Amino acid sequence: MVTNMLRDRGGRKGGLMQLLTLSLVHSGRRNERNRACSIPRAVTTSRFGSLACSLIEFTHTGSHMTYHHSRLAAALLALAATLSCESPTDTAPDLLVADALEARLSGELVFLAMRITPDTHMSALFVGAAVEDDAGCLRLDSPDRATAVWPRGWGFERRDGTVRILDADWKLVARIGEQVSLGGGEVETLPAAMGFTQADRDLAENHCPGRYWIVSDAG
């Protein structure tokens, strides 16, 4: 259906936008029940995924979602899902999970992140660059070369050859290789007081041995 839509409009993105506009102003008789947009982030953050969600959420304004609207939304989501597989970021990383720690492996990159929000946090501040070492670990550019352990829900993407760190709202907070301010603190081993277990320590040390910087925030 996506192919037909693009062919009918000459294969131009502008044609797809025109079709969306026509559908929004169209007043049909067949309605669907209002439903929230619950689609994976990789799809909804794309251009066409956002349009599809906007179309679905259009029903929450009191307007009707017609049969044509629903078909268009489905087509846009299908297109967004296809394009998300061709995004400039890496493919989905392998995920290794312990108790309070997870390791996401993407190519040579190792991204350590917490799986819990600790009751306590450290309040030191690092100002400098985080760099990717030969093993793919993201370490602070400091004498101790501590590996960053990022907060729960944070992630990363590669774009234009740069690793970009994204917070839980998928907003850019840091670029690897550039100066950043990281709140948190440095530890010799992942502490039990913050919820880490021996399984977490083994996972971290197997991939990125050495000291660690438990990140609380970035700016």
Structure description:
The chain is α+β, with helices and mostly antiparallel strands. Helices cover 29% and strands 28% of the residues. The chain contains six helices and eleven strands. The chain has helices spanning 2-8, 13-25, 41-44, 47-57, 67-84, 198-207, and strands spanning 94-97, 101-106, 109-114, 124-132, 138-140, 147-150, 155-159, 162-166, 172-175, 179-187, 212-218. Helix 4 (47-57) runs antiparallel to helix 5 (67-84). The radius of gyration is 22 Å and the shape is globular.
Q: Helix and strand layout, with pairings?
A:
Blueprint: H1 2-8, H2 13-25, H3 41-44, H4 47-57, H5 67-84, E1 94-97, E2 101-106, E3 109-114, E4 124-132, E5 138-140, E6 147-150, E7 155-159, E8 162-166, E9 172-175, E10 179-187, H6 198-207, E11 212-218
Helix pairs in contact: 4-5
- State the helical fraction: 25-40%
Mean pLDDT across all amino acids: 74
Main sheet characteristics:
8 strands, mixed
**Strands ordered across the widest β-sheet:** 1-2-3-6-11-10-4-5
Shape: globular
Number of beta strands? 11
Uncertain stretches of 5 or more adjacent residues: 1-50, 55-63, 83-90
The SS-based structural class is: alpha+beta
Tally of helical runs: 6
Distance between the termini: 44 Å
Radius of gyration using CA atoms only: 22 Å
Give the percentage of residues in beta strands: 25-35%
- Write the H/E string, N to C: HHHHHEEEEEEEEEEHE
